[in-house]
Amino acid sequence: MIAAPETGRAGPGLGDRTLDDQALRDQALGNLTLGSVYSDVEAYYSARVARHGATPRGVDWSCWATQNLRFVQLLKLCDFSGPFALNDMGCGYGALADYLAMRHATAAIDYLGIDLSQAMIRHARLRLSGPDRRFVVAASCPLVADYCVASGVMNVSLGHSREVWEQFVATILRDMRRNSRRGFSVNFKAAAGTTMGAADEPAEGLYRTTPQRWIEFCEAELGCSVETLDDYGMREFTLLVRCN
Amino acid sequence: MGSFVSDTTTSDILVRLNRRSDPDNLPEMIALQKEFKVFSEKHDLKQSLALLGIVPTDELERKRWYFFLDKLKTYKSDLPNVSGHDRAIKAVQKNLESKAPLPIAVICHLAAEDANVKVSQGRPQVFSSTDHLIISIPTTPRGQPKSRATKAKK
Q1: Contacting residues for B50 by C-beta, under 8 A, at least 6 apart
Q2: CB distance B50–A64 less than 8 Å?
Q3: pLDDT, position A13
Q4: Is residue A102 a part of any domain in this protein?
């Protein structure tokens, strides 16, 4: 099952970024082959937020501080000197929108949060909805933006085989590329044995990988240039992918 | 801890606290300090540890834990005119922002023997293989009379 897309509200100051019902449905249907993955992800995160509420634990992060340190890395892609549109894939309850309000309060950012989980989006809308802060239930980006970011979306593989999960990851990256004018950024858990990966950390249920695996994909298949961030103290890495 | 927070919560919190800044996880803590100044005079310990998610999950225990952290402001420390609360924050901040930060270990000692929050460097456990910054909190076991640590302000 793919969560039924919802229609977002076009508010003032959004330019031509308006949500279209049909586009949302078409994009969601295009991902039907990964239907069970989307269904599992939706169910998993809906259960998390039901249990832990709109908190870092509700999206499987250990705490506010590490969650925000990830946002710092992902947003290194963005040029804050001028206005821009930002898609937040797997936005959860809207923690990135909170972070933007805290750290970039004066920046003109047309923010769209996208998540499979209706429950997450409900929390996000209750807390944060506004003219330039919109949230939508969808499996893919319904609008083109200057940048797309995804934090933690690729990590919890929920028992799916590596092959299927990498198909899921590739689908998300293609979608982010298609809907990014300037670039997109994404983070991954580092594989054991890499400089960032812990040798003794259990990998069960988590997808871990090497930067090279997805750098090659982004360069060869998506035609982008990639910068890797792997020195921020965590057992993971962030790819800043610039559209050429 | 001790008389304020249950034994189970105390053990759980100490493990989580020490795990976050053990040798394996120290780089993450250094990065968090650099980016967000998690430990500084701008935040009290209650806020800093909440940002790190180091709080009891049980609501009542959480209240007791916060009460204890606030109570640390009335504890004395091994530095004159510095409360136990501020001593802990400043020691962690200075360590994390130093050129060669050490892993951090929080331990407890009997308040009846020494009512001060104490900071030192060394190996907190017999099995420890590296030096740590050690912060030791005076503790009174539940059911025993309060020590001078909590009477000091009266």
Answers
A1: A64
A2: yes
A3: 38
A4: yes
